[in-house]
């Protein structure tokens, strides 16, 4: 990563700017790096948090991320997988059950004729690997800590005025500053939200029995919980907790919390022997229909944010990023500029089906399993039994869970 730049009348000039140095923004920069080098172009990442000062981007916290096989291949192409693999755990089976019900289903990699159903990585390690890779790029600069205070449309692109007084001009702007994107608001783009009245409670736990690379999805009247396999015989807990209960659960002693978790999850992995530091964040479905402007595109959680129940958020983002990278590369190869709206609208149309299906799949799971009406609970039990016994239905569900469903590419 270089600190050099072209300066015009005290304004830093770049071909591309990415606002947001989280998982989506940094991955996009790495995907674009060969294109930048081939076309002698430069990119700047503008990030509110300074990694040099130890203030890491919020997405690189105690959470873990589920990766599909398609995502693994992309990360391998970027040269990241060898580093990531040191802290990655494969998922070989997925076990889905409902508390208080007799139906359950188990999907295995062998049934689906794949090596693994997916992978799990801790966000902190993922973030470190991304930043290490970015640091090696001469075509990418980093401005941090810095926030965009003002956005001005110009003939040649966008002018970004930063909170430290600097200005950045760019021909093509990628907005990746998260679900609460302030830049999206400055662009006048509306986000459609559905609040789940839930918070995700996340932490790592250790259990008496080894997880054997099984991911557990457990639906309860008080919200779904997942235990995803990690390295060192640990599991990542993602527990969707009703809004009115999150403060109490965060305040519990470790002993009280373990007792409650064992009550909800059961004893499949034996007693829980240790629980790590807990964190929480509110859950909602967020969709943006209009994700592009001339020379501007929303990426990552700025464009869509979904419930973590199916573990498909980052995999959907990766598919967006690869599609955009390919569209940019094709545009440059035909010597056309990036500021026109037509090609960006085509990109948006191309991604629309996958985005809708993936977000709807996660939303459907929450709606189906969060309602505790007796007849619906019975229907869920029968559905899980059918899912376990009807091969084509099970295969379709497994492909969607792996991020390989209709609309994915």
What secondary-structure arrangement, pairings included, does this model have?
Elements (H helix, E strand, L loop, with lengths): L5 E3 L2 E9 L3 H16 L4 E4 L17 E4 L1 H9 L3 H4 L3 E4 L1 E6 L5 E5 L9 E5 H13 L4 E4 L4 E7 L2 E6 L4 E9 L6 H5 L5 E16 L6 E6 L5 E5 L4 E9 L3 H6 L2 H12 L6 E4 L3 E9 L4 E2 L2 E3 L5 E2 L7 H21 L7 H30 L3 H16 L1 H11 L8
Characterise this structure.
- With 409 residues, the chain is of the alpha+beta class.
- It has helices spanning 23-38, 69-77, 81-84, 123-135, 182-186, 246-251, 254-265, 313-333, 341-370, 374-389, 391-401, and strands at residues 6-8, 11-19, 43-46, 64-67, 88-91, 93-98, 104-108, 118-122, 140-143, 148-154, 157-162, 167-175, 192-207, 214-219, 225-229, 234-242, 272-275, 279-287, 292-293, 296-298, 304-305.
- The strands form three sheets. Strands 1, 2, 3, 9, 10, 11, 12, 19 and 20 form a nine-stranded mixed beta sheet that branches. Strands 6, 7, 13, 14, 15, 16, 17, 18 and 21 form a nine-stranded mixed beta sheet that branches. Strands 4-8-5 form a three-stranded antiparallel beta sheet.
- Helix 1 (23-38) packs parallel to helix 4 (123-135) and helix 1 (23-38) packs parallel to helix 8 (313-333).
- The longest helix is centred in the C-terminal third of the chain and has 30 residues, at 341-370.
- The radius of gyration is 22 Å and the shape is globular.
- Residues 384-390 have low confidence and may be disordered.
- Belongs to the UbiH/COQ6 family.
- The chain crosses the membrane at residues 12-36.
- Residues 16-334 form the FAD-binding domain.
């Amino acid at each position: 990563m270089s600190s050099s730049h072209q300066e015009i009348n005290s304004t830093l000039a770049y071909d591309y700017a990415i606002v947001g140095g989280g998982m989506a923004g940094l991955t996009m920069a790495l995907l674009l790096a060969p294109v930048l080098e081939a076309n002698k172009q430069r990119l700047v990442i503008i990030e509110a948090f300074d990694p040099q000062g130890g203030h890491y981007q919020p997405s690189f916290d105690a959470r873990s991320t589920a990766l599909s096989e398609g995502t693994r291949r992309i990360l391998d192409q970027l040269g990241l997988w060898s580093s990531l693999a040191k802290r990655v755990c494969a998922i070989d089976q997925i076990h889905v059950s409902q508390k208080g019900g007799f139906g359950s289903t188990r999907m295995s990699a062998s049934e689906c004729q794949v090596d693994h159903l997916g992978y799990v990585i801790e966000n902190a390690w993922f973030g470190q690997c991304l930043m290490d890779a970015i640091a090696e790029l001469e075509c990418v600069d980093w401005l941090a800590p810095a926030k965009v205070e003002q956005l001005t449309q110009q003939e040649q692109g966008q002018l970004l005025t930063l909170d430290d007084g600097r200005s950045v001009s760019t021909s093509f702007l990628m907005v990746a500053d998260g679900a609460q994107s302030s830049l999206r608001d400055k662009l006048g783009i509306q986000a459609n939200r559905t609040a789940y009245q839930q918070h995700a409670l996340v932490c790592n736990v250790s259990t008496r029995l080894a997880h054997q690379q099984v991911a557990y999805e457990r639906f309860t009247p008080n919200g779904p919980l997942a235990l995803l396999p990690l390295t060192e015989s640990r599991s990542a807990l993602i527990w969707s907790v009703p809004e009115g209960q999150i403060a109490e659960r965060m305040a519990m002693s470790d002993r009280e919390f373990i007792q409650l978790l064992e009550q909800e999850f059961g004893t499949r992995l034996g007693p829980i022997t240790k629980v790590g530091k807990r964190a929480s964040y509110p859950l909602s479905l967020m969709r943006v229909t209009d994700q592009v402007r001339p020379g501007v595109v929303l990426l990552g959680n700025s464009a869509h944010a979904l419930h973590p129940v199916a573990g498909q958020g980052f995999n959907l983002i990766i598919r967006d990023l690869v599609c955009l990278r390919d569209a940019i590369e094709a545009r440059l190869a035909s010597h056309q500029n990036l500021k026109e709206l037509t090609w960006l609208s085509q990109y948006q149309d191309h991604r629309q089906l996958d985005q809708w299906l993936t977000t709807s799949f996660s939303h459907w799971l929450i709606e189906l399993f969060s309602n505790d009406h007796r007849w619906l609970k019975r229907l869920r039990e029968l559905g899980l039994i059918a899912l376990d016994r009807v091969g084509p239905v099970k295969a379709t569900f497994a492909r969607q869970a792996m991020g390989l469903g209709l609309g994915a590419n």
